[in-house]
Amino acid sequence: LEGLCSFLQLSTCPEHLLVRFCGWLLALTPDLSYASAAILAEQLFLKRVLSLTQPPSRHLMAALASFCSKYSQPFCRVLVAAVLREPGEGAEQTKLVCELVEECLEPDSVRLVLSQVLEVPLSEKVLPVVQAVLGRQEVLPPELFDLLVLTLCRQAPAFATSLNSASLNYAKLVTAVLTMYHSQVS
């Protein structure tokens, strides 16, 4: 499949054709396997998303949204994980992930994104993603909620030393957790 994607130059095809291609993928029966969907997510979107320096085009957003509608788990495992691991600010990538969390992903995938975020140190880059996940007001499994609270507690000293925007965002995040999950916080 990787060879076919390379032969078809899918990673560099024009974005308006990417929308059409994703439409064809959604029409396939039976559905793609998890592994095939993960390869396609990487080949179709990874390079494009990691190279964003401005907001994505409407064509790219349409293609991402359509792919996520059917293959959100492999998409999150490939693309969201790569965005979180990418060094640097990644402002456009973070905004994109937040938009997908808020508008496109199913509840299981939203929880997957949160678990991926909690695997990396909290930073100014990932705080908005956690905020977007909490904004969905999904019920979190106890183990994921406990990990969220533990991560927030462990990371508190890093955000308590200064009064920058990251510290403010961290404080907003803690307030959101306390407000939304007050019955589970002791």
UniProtKB/TrEMBL annotation:
GO cellular component, one term: Fanconi anaemia nuclear complex
InterPro entries: FANCE (IPR039685), Fanconi_anaemia_gr_E_prot_C (IPR021025)
Domain of life: Eukaryota
Fanconi Anaemia group E protein C-terminal domain sequence ranges: 3-185
Matches recorded under Pfam families: FA_FANCE (PF11510)
Annotated GO biological process: interstrand cross-link repair
PANTHER family, A to Z: FANCONI ANEMIA GROUP E PROTEIN
Name used for this protein in its record: FANCE protein
